[in-house]
Design brief:
By secondary structure, the chain is an alpha+beta fold. Helix content is about 25%, strand content about 30%. A hairpin with a 5-residue loop joins strand 11 and strand 12. The chain is elongated and about 90 Å long.
């Protein structure tokens, strides 16, 4: 075995190399203490013993704290408590017509009681995060179990804030919003093969929130075709379109556009 770097020793493999690291008293000095004569060697041994005792106490304390900390995602939640105590929908989100999903990690003690909640992934708005954290305090949980005994644990909970229903209410306008014709022709729906093979015909009615600047905020299916793949093809196309805003009293305004997208027809009916 090679010698330790920088020591120049050729006895790295000998056990006595470890002895050189222990301080050895060249002589023993006797001093007077309250309990009688004592030596420096005795004082040193007491100091070592005290340090070892302190270290042992610290390890026991650390182990005790660690035992109370949740180690993994293993706790549970009562679904009915979530339904009875849903997250309060923020007023700001209603006004802005935005949505988001917050991922919350909740720490549960060994009695199944709420300990702490943190945001693992933000919903994009601080008010979504705050609402999710507040809701987590009111749910019912189950502790993790190890060796048949309840122990602290964690649970990851997604909290959804969909676009509020109020945002989908139509308003009376002088001129309806509509997709830009050029962008519709450049991005037609890519219907699934079943439309052609099974000679399917019909339409999907999309609800599209169009801002007063023509920007598209949100989109969902208002009237389904009855097939998810067809509905999704219509939505994917609409996501690529540009829009013209609605007009009220000569000014552009935000509105909800109800737009039918036809499939299985060579010449779709005229759009309204």
């Amino acid at each position: 075995m090679a010698a330790e770097a920088g020591t120049g020793s050729k006895t790295a493999g000998r056990p006595d190399r470890w002895l050189r690291r222990v301080p050895v008293l060249a002589h023993t000095t006797t001093t007077e203490g309250r309990d009688g004569p004592r030596t420096e060697e005795g004082i040193l041994m007491k100091q070592i013993a005290g340090a070892l005792l302190f270290g042992a106490v610290a390890l026991v304390a650390a182990a005790s704290v660690a035992a109370e900390q949740p180690s993994d995602i293993s706790a549970g939640i009562d679904p009915s408590s979530r339904r009875l105590n849903p997250a309060k929908y923020p007023t700001q989100a209603i006004e802005a017509c935005v949505d988001g999903t917050v991922i919350v990690v909740v720490q549960i003690d060994k009695n199944g009681e709420f300990s702490k909640a943190t945001v693992e992934r933000s919903g994009g708005q601080a008010y979504f995060d705050e609402a999710a954290l507040e809701a987590a305090k009111h749910w019912t949980y189950f502790p993790a179990v190890e060796g048949g005994q309840p122990v602290p644990g964690k649970i990851r909970v997604p909290v959804d804030f969909p676009v509020h229903d109020r945002c989908w209410v139509s308003v009376e306008v002088d001129v309806q919003a509509r997709p830009d014709s050029a962008s519709m022709k450049a991005n037609p729906p890519k219907w699934p093969a079943a439309v052609k093979h099974e000679k399917l015909r019909g339409n999907v009615v999309l609800l599209i929130q169009v801002d007063r600047d023509g920007g598209r905020k949100n989109l969902k299916v208002g009237v389904s075709s009855g097939r998810q793949d067809i509905d999704e093809a219509a939505m994917l196309a609409a996501l690529q379109w540009f829009y013209r805003p609605a007009v009220l009293d000569g000014k552009p305004v935000a509105s909800v556009l109800h737009w039918p997208v036809y499939y299985g027809q060579k010449t779709p009916p005229a759009y309204r």
